[in-house]
Design goal:
NAD-dependent epimerase/dehydratase domain-containing protein, globular, 237 residues, 9 strands, Epimerase_deHydtase, three-stranded parallel β-sheet, alpha/beta, NAD(P)-bd_dom_sf, Rossmann fold
Length: 237
Amino acid sequence: MATHNVKTLIYSSTCATYGEPEKMPITEETPQFPINPYGKAKKMAEDIILDFSKSRKSDMSVMILRYFNVIGSDPEGRLGEAPPPELREHGRISGACFDAALGIIPGLKVKGTDYETADGTCVRDYIDVTDLVDAHVKALNKAERGKVGIYNVGTGRGRSVKEFVEACKKATGVDIKVDYFPRRPGDYAEVYSNPARINRELNWTAQHTELQESLRVAWTWQKKHRSGYADSGRYIF
């Protein structure tokens, strides 16, 4: 990128770099000890970016955004989530919920009901994609040459998998069949953000925080695009 004179880098990182912290909520100073391959790969990329940024060769403007769990769709119905078939089973919980509601799969598989959380299922911080877009725009506008900004992008509120499933049932109007299974290796019990830094420094706050409404918007797109972008005659990668 430096060779080709790239001056600004907004890197899509993840809360998975933190692993399973001892204290909640997660701040940008929370130690990073990823426990799954996804988190490890993202942390390696962060480390490479930070090492390069310390070198004399770099005057790049860098923003590292650590996403929490992204949900939702474009409110105007232009874009939605459409993973390739081979990734659907292991994709986001929202995609699995919608597939179950559409009858593409027989039901939803919830893995892990014995975590140390209020209802035994994992707790995550779900961030609407529209808010995530806004965070990118503000990060781009605030990026400073030769400096690195690191920000958590989340709502600051955790929701359990069971809460998510109930919200999805209401958003779709479908009584989705749910089967419970043992824990999946590499999953952590509870993760939610402290968004104070991004609130303060980028003047960003999540606006779309009603879980059921975010799922309703996404469901509207999913119903019209059972086969993803193939239904609209175009593909987005």
